[in-house]
Specification:
Blueprint: E1 7-10, E2 20-28, E3 34-39, E4 43-50, E5 52-57, E6 60-65, E7 68-72, E8 77-82, E9 89-96, H1 100-106, E10 115-117, H2 123-137, H3 142-156, H4 159-162, H5 167-181, H6 188-195, H7 199-210, H8 214-230, H9 237-243, H10 249-260, H11 264-272
Antiparallel strand pairs: 1-2, 2-9, 3-8, 4-7, 4-9, 5-6, 5-8, 7-10
Helix pairs in contact: 2-3, 5-6, 5-7
């Protein structure tokens, strides 16, 4: 691989995906080579292979050297410049997606922490070049490409961080489980088991973050889905109650009236007259 040649390989993946890789590349910079000031529409991570340079953002200047990387956030003006005497060589990845912010948070990147050190003992560097090489040769389909990107992020997640989910992470995972399984006959213990915590602890977290028990959150989620389905005449009330995880009409009517002060039939009648 000739590292003196600049590579910038575009990738076309759906923008509404969990993670989208727009481009990647590498460059051996000339002394004092700079880029910016410029604003990007997506995230960029530059990983410095050798040499050093400076990264300017929000009136701060960061000195970045080999085995370190810096994050460029979307919508933020940035400027970076290679050192005069020891110019950097780096690889970069440009990405976004609705999971991107959460992934960066998990690997401790944020607006207040834009510099990250590599402790992967060479694994990260190897994966980055494999990603670039496979783009250039067109070996991978879009799913293989994204899997390589996830692997790169996994090397940035320390062992302690990967095993130490925060309280908000548990609540988020519980809500995601409910979102994808509300139509089934689930118990709160099933949710707790799925995310790897005790049911009592899950109850405590929901009360802290939502002032609502997991059971009440589940019922409210089901009722809101049912409410939306009632606006479509093609669904019968029986279809709706079973589709939303209720096992009988009496329970469905009871909870619906308690939440919305009217029965499902009355709600639909109000909508259509």
């Amino acid at each position: 691989m000739d590292k003196l040649i600049v590579k910038n390989v575009p990738v076309h993946v759906k923008a509404n995906a969990p993670l989208t890789l727009y481009f990647c590349g590498w460059e051996k910079c000339e002394p004092s080579h700079f880029y910016g000031p410029a604003i990007r529409p997506h995230y960029l991570i530059h990983f410095v292979l050798s040499g050093k340079g400076s990264y300017h953002v929000r009136n701060k200047i960061y000195q970045v050297s080999a085995e370190e990387m810096f994050l460029i956030e979307p919508g933020v003006s940035t400027y970076y410049e290679a050192d005069l005497h020891d110019p950097w060589e780096y690889v970069w990845i440009g990405f976004d997606g609705y999971e991107a912010e959460n992934i960066l948070k998990k690997i401790c990147f944020s607006s207040k922490n834009l510099i990250h050190k590599d402790y992967s003992c060479g694994k990260l560097k190897k994966s980055l070049f494999e990603l670039i090489d496979n783009f250039e040769l067109g070996k991978d389909n879009e799913y293989a490409i994204i899997s390589r990107l996830y692997q790169i992020f996994s090397y940035l997640l320390s062992k302690d961080e990967s095993n130490d989910s925060t309280a908000s992470d548990y609540v988020f995972l519980a809500k995601e489980y409910i979102k994808n399984n509300y139509s089934y006959d689930m118990k709160i213990s099933d949710i707790a088991k799925h995310i790897g915590i005790d049911r009592t602890y899950l109850y405590k977290l929901f009360m802290q973050h939502n002032n609502l028990s997991p059971q009440k959150y589940l019922i409210q989620y089901r009722l809101n889905v049912a409410k939306n389905m009632l606006a479509d005449k093609k669904y019968s009330i029986t279809e709706i109650l079973y589709s939303c995880g209720f096992r009988d009409a009496a329970s469905f009517y009871k909870h619906f009236k308690c939440c919305f002060n009217m029965t499902p039939s009355q709600y639909r009648k109000n909508l259509f007259g």
